[in-house]
Design brief:
Layout lengths: L5 E7 L3 E2 L2 E4 L5 E7 L8 E4 L4 E4 L5 E6 L5 E7 L5 E6 L1
Protein name: EfeO-type cupredoxin-like domain-containing protein
Pfam families: Cupredoxin_1 (PF13473)
Organism: Lentilactobacillus parabuchneri DSM 5707 = NBRC 107865
């Protein structure tokens, strides 16, 4: 993390690693999702609370911009809502 931007890399393989992402309020942030295996329902990551939905092809990094203007806890999950993660903005 620099003073200008927060960046978190998340490996998508049998879940999300890390599954809890902690961000500072007011500093622009992005999450880089990289899927490393072909498990079916992890081919999509989405969050209604953070307003994103991305397809995750195996081996391709997808970057999602995360709003940090409001503190709180915001969930994200796979396409079938079986695997979950959380963004904490403090």
């Amino acid at each position: 993390m620099s003073e200008n931007k927060q960046t978190v890399d998340v490996i998508v393989a049998g879940g999300y690693k890390p599954s809890v992402i902690k961000l500072q309020k007011g500093i622009p942030a992005e999450i880089n999702f990289k899927r490393t295996n072909a498990q079916g329902c992890l081919d999509v990551v989405h969050s209604d609370a953070l307003n994103f939905s991305e397809e995750l092809p195996v081996g391709v990094t997808k970057t999602v911009q995360i709003p940090t203007d409001q503190a709180g806890e915001f969930s994200f999950s796979c396409g079938m809502d079986m695997f979950h993660g959380k963004v904490e903005v403090r």
